[in-house]
């Protein structure tokens, strides 16, 4: 197994009608829902940091294949034969579609703000539902056997994360599993980070902070806590280091492409906010790319899984 794949640490601390057709009225943690909706109003003026265009659609599909290669599969949670699966923030839907193919007996739902890619021949057991976790999930409580959410640290406001995880736990059935995959937009996620990398990621972090998003890797560090505070058990955390650059072989080369394309996608707003030309930002990216190979840089992210207790 490659050295960068993952190091496992397991925590043992405690933890009728079509449900997708009718939004539930139950709030996040009873009183948290209005607060989460307030975050959505805030983000209407300051949207998700990355664009929603064809380039980003292609990058998200590419990123999916990188992560699948890294994890040697689509998930790490110890699920067996789930009946219902939910992917929150499904993006292009590729992860959910592959789960539908893997578990043809299961109902698989991908949820996002909008359907950015329409598959020409999706599996019969997959469907897309339009929704926003910040407004509460439009499903009944205790409905899904497996709930998955990945790389939304640049989409969900930092202060909303505890309530979001509570909402994921609400729709998970007793004995079901939640899996979270998150990274960060902090230079501490890149180790070692050269001066160009630190400057570039620092600018992106500042832009994220201005929009109420995580800029210091807080979300990634807090996944275990969020899950435990939501009442989940059998929390398992997998710290992962991914090589960035050709020095890391095929996986490192793919990851470098993903990082470069993601940064290119936001080079214009970064330049506009900090009084730079877009070419200056791209030149900084070129310097950072060279540093990744010279310093053998890796990017850190984490996968965390937890189980909802069985009803007594």
TrEMBL record:
This is Methyltransferase domain-containing protein. The lineage of its organism: Bacteria, Bacillati, Chloroflexota, Ktedonobacteria, Thermogemmatisporales. Residues 85-176 form the Methyltransferase domain. It comes from Thermogemmatispora aurantia. Pfam families: Methyltransf_25. InterPro entries: Methyltransf_25, SAM-dependent_MTases_sf. One of its GO terms (molecular function) is methyltransferase activity. It comes from the Bacteria. Gene3D superfamilies: Vaccinia Virus protein VP39 (3.40.50.150).
């Amino acid at each position: 197994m490659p050295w960068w794949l993952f190091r496992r640490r397991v925590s043992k601390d405690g933890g009728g009608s079509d449900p997708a057709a009718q939004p539930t009225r139950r709030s996040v943690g009873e009183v948290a829902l209005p607060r989460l909706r307030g975050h959505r109003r805030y983000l209407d003026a300051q949207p998700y940091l990355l664009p929603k265009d064809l380039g980003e659609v292609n990058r998200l599909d590419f990123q999916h294949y990188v992560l699948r290669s890294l994890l040697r599969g689509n998930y790490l949670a110890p699920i067996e034969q789930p009946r219902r699966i939910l992917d929150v923030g499904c993006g292009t839907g590729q992860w959910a579609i592959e789960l539908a193919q893997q578990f043809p007996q299961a109902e698989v739902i991908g949820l996002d703000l909008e359907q950015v890619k329409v598959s020409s021949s999706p599996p019969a057991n997959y469907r897309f539902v339009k929704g926003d976790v910040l407004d509460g999930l439009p499903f009944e409580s205790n409905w899904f056997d497996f709930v998955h959410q990945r790389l939304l640290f640049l989409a969900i406001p930092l202060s909303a994360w505890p309530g979001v995880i509570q909402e994921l736990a609400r729709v998970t059935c007793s004995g079901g599993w939640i899996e979270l995959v998150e990274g960060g937009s902090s230079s501490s996620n890149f180790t070692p980070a050269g001066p160009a990398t630190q400057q570039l990621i620092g600018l992106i972090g500042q832009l994220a902070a201005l929009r109420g998003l995580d800029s210091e890797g807080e979300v990634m560090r807090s996944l275990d806590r969020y899950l435990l505070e939501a009442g989940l058990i059998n929390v398992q955390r997998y710290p992962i280091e991914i090589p960035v650059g050709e020095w890391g072989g095929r996986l490192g080369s793919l990851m470098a492409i993903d990082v470069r394309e993601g940064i290119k996608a936001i080079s214009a707003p970064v330049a506009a906010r900090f009084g730079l030309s877009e070419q200056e930002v791209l030149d900084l990216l070129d310097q950072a790319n060279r540093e990744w190979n010279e310093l053998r840089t890796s990017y850190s992210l984490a996968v965390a899984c937890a189980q909802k207790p069985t009803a007594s």
